[in-house]
Amino acid sequence: MAQAGSSQPERKRPRLSPEDEKPFVDHPTLYFDDGNVILTAGSTLFCVHRSLLSKHSAVLRDLFEESHARFRGLLHLEMEETSEEVEALVNVIYDGLRVDVQKLSVETFPSLANILRMATKYKVARPCDDILARIRAEWPATLVQHDAKVREVRDRLSRIYGNANRPPGIQQPAQGVPPPEPMPPEEDAIVHPASVISLLRECGYHDKDLFFPLFYALSCTTWQFGGPSLGLNLAPLSSADVERLVVGTERLRTAHISFAVVTPEFAVSPTHPPHFCILGATQMWSTMLPLLLPPARRRSRPIEDWCDMIPLATNGHMQYHVCALCARSIASKVEAIRQTLWASLPAYFELS
Question: Could you tell me the pTM of the whole model?
């Protein structure tokens, strides 16, 4: 303790104003001793470098220029967000705008969501682009990429379950009985599409190519509407998006059923009598019908269900006495139906 009248009083931390006396806590890793601006989020303090944050965020740069508040002798900005959200933004800026999380899962989604919200609000473009790219990779907008994603999932499941997850048209072409609905062990670890849709809406995105694969994936997880479990799954959605999902799912399933129940016209092969392949092709299509129209309790995946019919047409044609040329014609018709359904998804879900 310094003596009264001493010319060199003991140095003390500046007395805090009543507002400063709240139980503030310095962030353990983002409170830099040489920082020159303090961000407050709740009771957490971030001492950071103004030049770095200003360089990557014009919004923060403007806020710094407008602020005249001081805290601990430094420029002070009181943030509206939680400490977790501010931490996400500051971390990604100090990490060179890289998003280190590679896999989109229920464990990583909260962190990625915080980064996307904050990077969108404060206009830090690169993290937004990285996260949107991850979402697009998980729910692709092109049918080719969607099919590749489905094959990847099925291959992973087949290593766990064996043949239980093989496409139904290959597994039981003669009996026409669909196998039990596979239950992926990782299903609970996959981010629910409704949560992603809600996040994108919150951040102001409207790109239909970003949304329609998510709505299709959501429709595949919903085989009937109503009940508490469905309400829980759709809780993140706005009422407008719930309506969009219900209407779009019914439109998709109606179109799917319409294609399935009408036997298409088959071209006559020049190498066989007309009745020969036409009769076999009709029988083959009839075999496909129960595989395309599963029981109501089973999930409906029209795009995947039609895809599973292509191997049945190309590999099972001899069983139905259909020549290879006509079998390829049937497979082409099936693929054309898939292309039509996929291209119609934005309109079905009113995302155009």
Answer: 0.81
